[in-house]
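In practice, a research group might receive sequence data for several interacting partners and want a quick structural hypothesis before committing to experiments. The following worked case mirrors that situation: the sequences arrive first, and a predicted assembly follows.
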Amino acid sequence: MDARTSNATEIDSRPINNLLRRLSAADFALLAPHVMVESTAANELLYSPGDDVQVVHFPCGPSLATFLVPNEDGRDVETILVGREGAVGGIVSEGYLPAYTRICVKFGGPFARIHVSKLEAAKQRSPSLRHVFARYADCMLAQIFQSTACNAIHSIEQRTAKWMLAAMERTGDESSVPLTHEQLATLLGVGRSYASRVLQSFKAEGVLDTRRGSILVRNREGLRLRACLCNEAVKMHFEEVLRGVYPTEEREAG
Amino acid sequence: MDARTSNATEIDSRPINNLLRRLSAADFALLAPHVMVESTAANELLYSPGDDVQVVHFPCGPSLATFLVPNEDGRDVETILVGREGAVGGIVSEGYLPAYTRICVKFGGPFARIHVSKLEAAKQRSPSLRHVFARYADCMLAQIFQSTACNAIHSIEQRTAKWMLAAMERTGDESSVPLTHEQLATLLGVGRSYASRVLQSFKAEGVLDTRRGSILVRNREGLRLRACLCNEAVKMHFEEVLRGVYPTEEREAG
DNA sequence: TCAGGTCTGTCCACTTGTGCACACAGGACC
DNA sequence: GGTCCTGTGTGCACAAGTGGACAGACCTGA
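A structural hypothesis for the assembly, expressed as tokens:
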């Protein structure tokens, strides 16, 4: 929270985060004095279970955060991805409650931050601002519901393809995802050898290529054909709920 | 919404729902004029995807609601159970948004209902009331996160035991759960024959017994040993977050 | 009391995913 | 140029879960 401050008041200097960019000028002005942007590295923890949630983090540009649920055997389970379409920390709880999940930076980059108390104060002053955040909270909820269903019934192959597409949409990188097989396996909650095998089958079909530490996408449409429709379902909800807040060309979810 | 009204002002005549029972007298008084209690049958739909969410439903006594995520192939996936520890509809979204999931009455019984606009108006007048609902929203979120992780890594056997325990805790019925194998299979997102086999293995171990249309619990502790710890994790979060709102002996979750 | 519908138990062949093991490849560092 | 470490490809035996099939049990209603 002590990096360079960016108290932007003009649209073009706003952080590259859809939630912040699409606020009315008046609403953004309420937040601007309290918003700070700083760079964050991959694997940095934003919250751990039990932490007091006091700061809202907005991934900007290619930054990506993920919610991890700790498990009794020590291995965390990844649930949802949040990129520049949203924010993490105190969105539903409104802060000052112990965090339930671990929130971790998946892909590093800039994050805009604001103290929960400042955001809540601004919401008190502006019903439209409160409304935007309530709507986003609902979208995030939809994302988690979909993820629950997805984990229950979709195959690892479908979920692998889904995850790759969701990550690419958020980071803007159309050709590569910086992930080892081990990391992919962990985030899908499967064994490493099976994850390798799924990637191998995609490779055989010309959809992807593997490099040490990253996965290259050769055929995005092929990936889409192999993914479940969970991303699309959530995206439609984002569009419907945040219509007027997000313009059509910037909608992103999954 | 047109059944007999129960404008209770005294604690003892409040609906048997923890969220409502544990409000301060002043906070409950704000809601009471708008609360109606009516009976609901199993399988009744409270919301379907796309519906305008305008009424908050509080399961009372043994009533149980469930959130279903529709799937491309037509079979819904059950996600979380909500009983008298909570409420469904507009908890996170604050209403007037299209519902993302289907919300269905799993076990029938009384539900208290209040219009979202009345609840939101009361929240505007009472920060403590707003606070209780924000806290409950956070608990519900934790429940869904845990469910996502559970579906990713726990076996059908563990999840079957977990579900049975969660249902029993909420309904108060310690010995039986009214469910066919088919229904159990559907809510776990697995095939019927496999669900039967799991029940059969529990039966062989003396944990439960099967009847046509219901499952009898013979050894609750045995069930607990075979369940994952997801229920307990969520219960702890409920207890921590709603401490002071819910007394210890009434905490329930899962 | 018989018929018909639903629910239950079980069989089987099959697919998906596990967990371990091991050889080898790609970089990084000296 | 070698060393070491991490990451990758693959083989294998096994466990978990699928989906269709079918006989029999239970309940209800005529």
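Before designing any experiment, note the following. Residues 155-157, 190-194, 197, 212-213 of chain A lie near DNA strand C (CB under 10 Å from a C1'). Chain A has nine helices and ten strands.
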